Q: What sequence folds into this?
């Protein structure tokens, strides 16, 4: 049989409740079982308009074979090329990302009611492409997609409008695995490589400079999402994570290594190794962070001096009541010890920090003696109140007219109030 169909003069087609206008179209399908297994298809739709989007032309061109058994359809084989030209999309971000033309082709093997295999799938546009093979099983009972896909985007700046921030660089990805449509379950492996990528965030941009890669292995079923492994490797940053995310519980653990904090911020220096964990159900999660920093520089001269050498860090947070409680905050090295705890929620803060410096001489030349201090910060739908008390032993501040009065034990007390970002000092004793 041979089918010829033509469309002209602005018909309106009822697609999805939104009027679709087509100025012209033609579709030619050729197949005759009496003459053999071969079939061919050729089609073109001209000037399609829907919901503010316009496509100058949609094209189809394919051919293959049909296999029958006793008159029953057994298999359809073929290759189909498709394309869209003259694309004018209402969404400017999508227009920039896709360009004005897309072309593609794929071989296919269809077993009616059972399976569809796409081989040599290729989809290309301006600066991007998608390639691979896909297999769809269970067309009657519930579709499961499996296969391997490679994707490349040569100019990430074209995605800037969609992302809502300036992007640059290149990216490539490979994904293998399977996806079940009805349950939304998946089991997949992914590899993503970026070259000179930037996301308009200075610290992150510096960490991702050059080539950076992300590999992930994960599965989702009725119990939740299992992250078997997630690895980030860049010249300046290495991170690894694994765990389970479920509706009733979370158990995630990660390791982070930065050889030089200068790579994140030129004003900083030193190295950092840390381990993080998040556990518990939503609304009652617990987060912990432990690690060690070496020769930290944060850009504050006195503090930088106190952070020389190895500094250990221990933090524990507990979620609850719409906020988090800091159960443990400990920073320790031979020059400085700090311990904190407290609760933090919008408009409600109650936190305390204890600091001990056994020798003020490490902070600045001319200082000496020891200091212990405690700061207490509270806020209850109003100004933030700060109270600090402490003691010093044999203090010397490098001022002759003061140092003589600070021998022995010196006690001090300070109160202040913060409102609208402005700090007002009330008392200093």
A:
């Amino acid at each position: 049989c041979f089918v010829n169909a033509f469309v002209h003069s602005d018909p309106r087609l009822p697609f999805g409740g939104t009027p679709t206008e087509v100025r012209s179209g033609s579709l030619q399908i050729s197949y005759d079982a009496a003459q053999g297994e071969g079939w061919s298809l050729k089609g073109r739709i001209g000037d399609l308009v829907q919901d503010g989007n316009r496509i100058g032309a949609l094209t189809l061109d394919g051919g293959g074979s049909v296999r029958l058994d006793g008159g029953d359809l057994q298999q359809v084989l073929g290759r189909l090329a498709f394309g869209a030209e003259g694309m004018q999309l209402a969404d400017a971000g999508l227009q920039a990302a896709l360009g004005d033309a897309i072309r593609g082709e794929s071989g296919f093997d269809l077993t009616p009611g059972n399976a569809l295999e796409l081989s040599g799938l290729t989809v290309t546009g301006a600066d991007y492409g998608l390639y691979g093979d896909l297999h769809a099983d269970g067309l009657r009972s519930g579709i499961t997609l499996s296969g391997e896909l490679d994707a490349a985007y040569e100019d990430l700046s074209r995605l800037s409008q969609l992302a809502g921030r300036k992007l640059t660089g290149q990216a490539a990805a490979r994904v293998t695995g399977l996806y079940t449509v009805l349950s939304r379950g998946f089991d997949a492996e992914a590899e993503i490589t970026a070259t000179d990528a930037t996301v308009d965030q200075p610290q992150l941009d510096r960490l991702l400079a050059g080539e950076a890669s992300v590999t992930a292995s994960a599965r989702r079923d009725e119990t939740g999402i299992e992250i078997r492994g997630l690895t980030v490797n860049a010249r300046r940053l290495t991170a690894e994570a694994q765990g389970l995310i479920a509706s009733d519980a979370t158990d995630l653990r990660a390791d982070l290594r930065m050889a030089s904090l200068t790579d994140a911020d030129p004003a900083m220096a030193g190295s950092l190794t840390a381990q993080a964990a998040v556990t518990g159900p939503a609304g009652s999660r617990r987060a912990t962070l432990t690690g060690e920093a070496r020769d930290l520089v944060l850009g504050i001269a006195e503090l930088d001096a106190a952070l020389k050498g190895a500094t250990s860090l221990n933090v524990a947070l507990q979620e609850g009541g719409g906020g988090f409680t800091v159960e443990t905050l400990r920073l320790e090295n031979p020059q400085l010890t700090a311990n904190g705890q407290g609760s933090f929620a919008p408009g409600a803060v109650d936190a305390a920090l204890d600091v001990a410096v056994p020798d003020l001489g490490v902070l600045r030349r001319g200082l000496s003696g020891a200091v212990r201090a405690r700061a207490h910060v509270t806020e209850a739908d109003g100004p933030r109140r700060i109270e600090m008390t402490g003691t010093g032993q044999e203090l010397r501040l490098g001022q002759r007219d003061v140092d003589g009065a600070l021998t022995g034990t010196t006690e001090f007390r300070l109160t202040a109030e913060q409102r609208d970002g402005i700090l007002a000092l009330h008392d200093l004793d």
Notes: The chain is about 5% helix and 65% strand. The first strand starts at residue 2 and ends at 8. The first helix runs from residue 92 to 98.
